[in-house]
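As a warm-up, study this chain.
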Amino acid sequence: MKFLKRLFASRARQPAVNEEISRIIDRFTTATIMGIDREDLGRYPAKQHKVMAFHYGAIEYLCRQNDLDEVQTLGLFVVFIDRYFNMPVVETGSITERLQGFRNEPEQRRYLEAGIDVFRRWHEQGERRAPLDLGQMLKSP
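Now compare it with the structure written out below.
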């Protein structure tokens, strides 16, 4: 009987973890958006990619902290992209290409790493103004 409880409890854990991560990322995104010119973001795809990389860094960090694998992390990122960038489902295949860019292109890599750092400061150290760093980064050349 204990075996069945453990088996079903571990399966039930996954959606709860995903939902909690989504809630945390939503709060973090709300905090970062305060420092961004959203109209400007809509006009410049390069800035969109930087913002995506920044948030992917936060998502990846939080997923690693919760022992989620690459597929689960990608799933959470797809949900993020759909929610905040309204990317059509037909374009989700290009997300893997976008992730490669986050790692291979130095400027996007910088945003990915900044997303990890800012998220950690915000979430673990309680620096409530840390998410505003994204807006400052986007303003600098």
